[in-house]
Amino acid sequence: MDPFLTLLHSFSSSLSDSELSSLKFLCRGKIGKRKLESVQSGGELFSILLEQQLITSDEVSFLEGLLESIKREDLVSQLKQFVEEAEVNAADDQPDVHEKPIEVICENVGKDWKMLMRKLGISEVKMDRIVAANPFNLQEQVVQSLREWQKWKGKDAKVTDLITALRGYNMNLVADRVEQ
After folding, report:
1. pTM of the model
2. For a tag site, which of 10, 62, 94, 171 has the least CB within 10 Å?
């Protein structure tokens, strides 16, 4: 699932009726009157803004302006955090020497991946986000959580740390395979 759509959904569910009315009012110059009248939720409004490419995951200034206008600084800060994380992720998208250990871990860790991630220091919130984005794909949850760990650690992400964490949870067979 697209993280930007997830963010918009959370914004939508936190908007009051009066805030939605204010947002619709602010969009009058951009969206036709008939379309605006049919909008019943923030999600519908965001869908129209996406369709008209007034907001995209790369261009959020219009959305930021709307949220500032209705005095939802909490949502503005979430949006800014999303943009910062997206920039970091874009910089880290190159393949990396850790890909082979990630593959081995993904194939062998299974449902105990959260214990491993806790040992590596990944927060529950990040793990929950990963599960929400990949609800029915255990292997993808493991891949994304390991990539999250790599991004978080940066140059300090060492294969030896993975092996130590695996051994810390008696996943010695997996640790041996990673060493190979």
Report:
1. 0.50
2. 94
